[in-house]
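Whether sequence alone determines local backbone shape is best considered at the level of individual chains. Part of our work consisted of pairing the sequence of a single chain with a tokenised description of its backbone. This step matters because it turns folding into a mapping between discrete strings. For completeness, the protein is quoted in full, as a sequence line and a line of structure tokens:

_____
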Amino acid sequence: MTCRTSHALGGPVGWLTVLALVAGCAPSVTDCPRCDTLVIAAIGEPDHLLPPFVWQSVGRDIDDLVFDRLAVLGPSRSPLDLGGYRPALAERWERIDSVAWRFHLRSAAWGDGRPVTAADVVFSFEAHQDPELDAVARGSLEGLRAVAEDSATVRIQFDRPRPDQLYDATYHVRIFPRHLWDSIPRDRWGAASEPARLIGSGQYRVVEWQRGQFLVLEATGAEPPPIRRVIWRFVGAPDAASNLIITGEADLLETIPDPVRRPEFESLADYRVQVYPSSVYGFLGFNLRQENRLSDVRVRRALERALDRETLALAVFGAGTTVPDGPMSPQLWLWQAPAPAVADTSRAASLLDEAGWPRSAGGERRQNGRPLAVDILVPGTSATRRNMAIAIQERWSRLGIAATVSSVDFPVFQERLENGRFETFIGAWLDEPHPRSLADQWTRTGWDRQNYGHYANPAFDSLFSAAMAEPDPATTRQLWREALAILNQDVPAIWLYSPGNAAVVHRRLVPPTEFKPFAWLTDLPGWRLSAPPERSATPD
């Protein structure tokens, strides 16, 4: 059987066609040695794909293939390393002075054939900076202005010298076509998601999006890459994504949702498990919005000291998991090897005693007759976070703490975080190469974004701002470390894990390198397809 498919769609793909592609291309390497369709099992679905609106990881993965940045930071490179960037939409660039850079665009076209111009770049930057759209990157673009010098040249102007200018000019903004969006009022952009408008200058274009079911990308250009069609199958639960692999209906799963199931995937003849670095860090966050038992830093420190975090992390996530000493993964350039995160239950008990929570005759911690009770909120879609919460619950109970675990659907989880209806929660954030994203997560300015616990410390915020403004990279690093020391002293969260990722990949797919932790599908155009195995002749 062969399953090479036509690429001139001539219209919507249709669900029946997608099912045929999935069924025809998944069963085995020998049956389908040259399939050029890749099916990805995705947990969750993006709300939108227009770059200013994209924040979910699946949406980022898709946009990485459709929309170009001006330049791309290489893997394992610091954003302050000016030699760490490679061309994307811009073929070259140079520093004009201490507050300006000039970018020269390569000859490129949108998916509808119109040329990409500097006006598109300016339009894209202005859209990301528009308060009405409130893009995730808006705060990172303050004090920056894009100016078209001619049709193929853009100047990025900053309000002050700082070491991360090249990063800000290239990382946050994916360029999209002005001619398809400037005629639509921006308050209506969120409702406009038809594929005909979701075109970029990347090597793939959106050809169909059936909400709640699937999305199809098709390769563009005269010399398309080996993988010419990419299909995302959207499911709402980790088990459903895993089953798409087990039944042969998908070729690729970004990471095994529950490490306990890894041997099951390793036993699949047509798939391999590929381990690659993670840019995720997980934590237990405290709700500090109002005065309560968790407002006492002694209680938070006791809850932290009660946990042998290294043992918990390895038990839940398996080998390759590390425990960070702050809100970061090992991929962030601020990372340094932390001291072992071992439990000190004696010190934890003393802290609770000092805070006025002694053990009662029955063993519970009580204050004025009230038990010390703590609820842990987790998304029901994450088996690992649920398992981590149960393990923490058991450790805390040894200290006389009445811990409970509330597992809810992800939309409910998100709604409760945004409205402060939780005591603690287990969260997991995806790093960016620059620690600037910590502003949304842990500074006062992030209260309306991802700082759901409303932690605030002026000393931390001040050092954070100083690190952002410091032009010397070595001094910048020192300021960041001082800021993180204050954060750790306050214990707004307990840093729990940074896992290694284990993707499940069909054996006919041959990535050129290991997956990149910040953008695992970026190199998809360079993936190869394995040749069919030689079969020896056998007598009839």
Residues 1-16, 26-31, 532-540 have pLDDT under 50 and may be disordered. Residues 280-497 form a domain with the Dipeptide-binding Protein; domain 3 fold (CATH 3.10.105.10). Residues 349 and 524 are 52 Å apart (CA to CA). The chain has three domains: 15-66+202-277+501-529, 71-181, 280-497.
